[in-house]
Amino acid sequence: MGFVQSIVVLVLASFVLGCLADCNHNNVYNVVDNGAKGDGETYDTDAFLDTWNAACKDSTDPTMLIPSGFTFLLNQIIFKGPCNSNIHVQVDGNIVAPNKEWEKKAEHWITFSEINGLKIDGSGQVDGKGSAWWSCRGDKKCSKTPDAFFVLKCKDVQLSDLKFVNSPRKHLSLYDTVGAQVSRLTIKAPEDSPNTDGIHIQNSQNVKVFKSTIGTGDDCISIGTGTSNINISQILCGPGHGISIGSLGEDESEAKVERIHIFNCRLSNTTNGVRIKTWQGGSGYAKDISFINIFFDFVEKPIVINQYYCDDNDNCSNKTSSVQITDVYYNNVKGSSSQETAIILDCSKTNSCNGIVMENINIKSAKDGDGKTTKASCFNAEVIIKGDVKPRLPCSSDS
Ligand SMILES: *[C@@H]1O[C@H](CO)[C@@H](O)[C@H](O)[C@H]1NC(C)=O
Ligand SMILES: *[C@@H]1O[C@H](CO)[C@@H](O)[C@H](O)[C@H]1NC(C)=O
Ligand SMILES: *[C@@H]1O[C@H](CO)[C@@H](O)[C@H](O)[C@H]1NC(C)=O
Ligand SMILES: *[C@@H]1O[C@H](CO)[C@@H](O)[C@H](O)[C@H]1NC(C)=O
Q1: Which tens digits make up the pLDDT trace of 333-359?
Q2: Ligand 1 pocket test: which of 178, 261, 291, 292 has the largest number of ligand atoms within 8 Å of its C-beta?
């Protein structure tokens, strides 16, 4: 290499290296540098908001850091976009809610709203301190209880690794969000805590939830209306009410739910396994749904379609219209049921369930050893059977 070429190479190399250092520069905004105390007693809400506002203006794909070794007490907070670049919120420290039933100014505790390319992860724990709310709900003294983590109108969200415990109500809700990957979460609340669903997805599309462990007092995962292209896999669920699509059609509303795929999940000690629930009087549809490779361990009602869903407090009268359920595919669904009736297909009187296929189903009694067996019940459902299906369905083409 001649002298001139060497100079050119050197100049190019230093240019490239300089750029690498600079181009890769993602600013870090640490909440502690913005005044957060992290002592678990002082409200750090303002420090978090200041940090967010600074990070949100930054265009280097910055990180908002919530460092480990601290416990941050937060009041209600809304992290609002749009921001100038993709934000990474790294939650390594713990976050706690006030240990009481607090005055609500917003709907939920921690809200992320209107943000594109949001990534949240870290080894921290988010504790909703829900017990004050649970007793108040038990006494029916409070009507609207906040969800802990509320993702609203976001696009391309990644949420992983965090641990959520003891939410006042649902732990994580996704609403009006397009594109989300939720993974490796741990969600825990007592089995008797009211409405503490693990993850609720509504009016959202293209969502993938996987590799998570969820045990709460309500559904591990619930999927509401306005959802399509939702994949749920590798979930360990229990205790709780299982994995649910619904409830749909409440107050004569219209449901639109399609392309929901639930696979490679294990449910232990839950009251329901995989369930579709709709209220009477609704309209619309729930279609193209599959449950594949599902394993039950001591589940009360492993497979349920209930088109007569009614909350305990409601007085539900019979109505003729209903959400139409079509094309539901169950394949390789196995395990044990703690009650005799392991499969319940209770379809609408006016709209029968269409295109229900069951392939390789084997649900035994949890007391199999004592010679107990399981059975199935059907109302206005017609089921196509493929392979071995146990218990036998009284509404199948082979019955
Ligand atoms: C869900 O899985 C289906 C089938 O593998 C795939 O076509 C679809 O893109 C997946 N959707 C999401 C949101 O991951
Ligand atoms: C299910 O409940 C039984 C009895 O309460 C308990 O012994 C068992 O460990 C539980 N299994 C799981 C996986 O939680
Ligand atoms: C419940 O419904 C029944 C029958 O329609 C009615 O007689 C009763 O008053 C209702 N109760 C309430 C609390 O609405
Ligand atoms: C509603 O319909 C279901 C199913 O046909 C029936 O079992 C139930 O008794 C009815 N309830 C009322 C309040 O009419």
Answers
A1: 999 999 999 999 999 999 999 999 999
A2: 261
